[in-house]
Design a protein that fits this description.
Elements: E1 16-27, E2 30-41, E3 46-52, E4 63-70, H1 75-94, E5 101-105
């Protein structure tokens, strides 16, 4: 009989919260929160920045990547560059107003 083996290599991804904001409060119980995370991806040696919402109504998904940075980059500077670029894109494309409040810091 042929010999074979199966190896399952699971990568551990640990998203870290950068901060969470409320874009707007439409009324009691109607908030538009968005949380921003950074996750290190071993093997690619990259940090992935993501935006997360409670539903798919805004972009068709709850979570999506908004940018990347090399592992060697200054993470705080990279986060500032990626997230300000993401926010500026929302202003340019959809005339997005300023967010209402910061509700959680990472």
């Amino acid at each position: 009989m042929p010999q074979w083996a199966a190896i399952y290599a699971r990568l551990q991804f640990t998203p870290r919260l950068l901060f969470s904001i409320h874009w707007a409060t439409s009324g009691p119980g109607f908030e538009w929160p968005e949380a921003y995370h950074v996750t290190y991806v071993p093997g690619l040696e990259k940090h992935i920045f993501t935006a997360s919402r409670d539903g798919p109504d805004a972009f068709g998904c709850e979570d999506h990547a908004v940018g990347t940075a090399d592992n060697a980059d200054d993470l705080q500077g990279a986060a500032k560059k990626v997230l300000t670029s993401y926010s500026q894109h929302q202003v340019d494309e959809w005339d997005q107003g300023r967010w209402e409040s910061c509700n959680k810091k990472g």
